[in-house]
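Example 3.2
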Amino acid sequence: MLPDVPVEITKGKTKSAILEIFRASLKLGLTSFGGPIAHLGYFHSEYIKRRGWLDERGYADLVALCQLLPGPASSQVGIGIGTMRAGLLGGIAAWIGFTLPSAIVLMLLALLLHGLPIDSYGWIHGLKIVAVAIVAQAIHSMGMKLASDRSRATVAAAAASVTLLWPTAGSQLLLIAGAAIVGYFVFRKDEAAEASALNMLTSRRTSTLSLILFVLLLALLPIIRAVTSNHYIALMDSFYRSGALVFGGGHVVLPLLEREVVPTGWISSGDFLAGYGAAQAVPGPLFTFASYLGAVDSGVVGAIVATIAIFLPAYLLVVGAMPFWQTLLHHARFRGAVAGINAAVVGILLAAFYDPIWVTAITGAREFALALVLFTMLTYWKLPIWSIIVAGAIGGMLIQPL
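Structure, written as tokens:
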């Protein structure tokens, strides 16, 4: 059963719920360093462990859905939780809170400070080690729930191995499809009575309209761009298409964006690479790289257009898919398939924990010692996330070679 998750929110409570979502997601947007896999760990700590907005199984089901959809999975998970708490405006509040800090920082960097060697600072390296502790704790918690028996652990281990040996977005899609087939036949009996409740505050009509709008924008924006020759329409088309067609997370969108902005002459290759480095040094979703690119090209307006355009497909897809996903989850065979997907997601997270998170952060005994201290603080002392982040940043400066 879900811990105090409301099925309905009265009008009198809607405003306070939206503000609560915004505050929670803003805190995550200010502190969630480490990339999309780390974000799922931060979300798990804040939304599941601390606030109890969703149970472990419901969170896993939402993560599984967002792994199947194109777009930034971590942002979609946040949008989904916000939508479940307070409807469409709750999803928007969750997206704004999580996205706004990094979008503003990257826009300012584009306008004023791009080229600064941010990634060489010791405190940045410390934040990468924080991500190691956060993700390790999340994988441990999810693994105990979703891959605790021999069959599921085998699926997770196989998924991790294949992901490490064949690191492409296509391999992840094939893994998820294969795990779904295995789960469909192997896990259906175990999962029949354990369906979680992803409580939705939006109607199926709204969700259907959301999916239709997603398709219409994808089809019509290139036509409008060709007819009008308006630069902002061209920006919206390029970034919307990039956000709509990317599978596999934030890093996979980079080649799509590069093909859209560098050959056209909007952004130089040097500015593109500098922005990519800056995007990895700030908290929040990597998709806010679009804010930097839009600002370099067209200033503040360009940043706003690019940011909205690249995230809009993610919002439309998660709002559109969730009610239908919830219905399917009540069928035993489909639940078995999702159980297989969940086990594979644990394996994919484990592979991502190793590369790029572990290999880029843990380069020696000092880094490992700091990560172990942070993991103990988080898991056993149960200290708040902000204290882990502060300790990691300070520790990163202290262990930086002179």
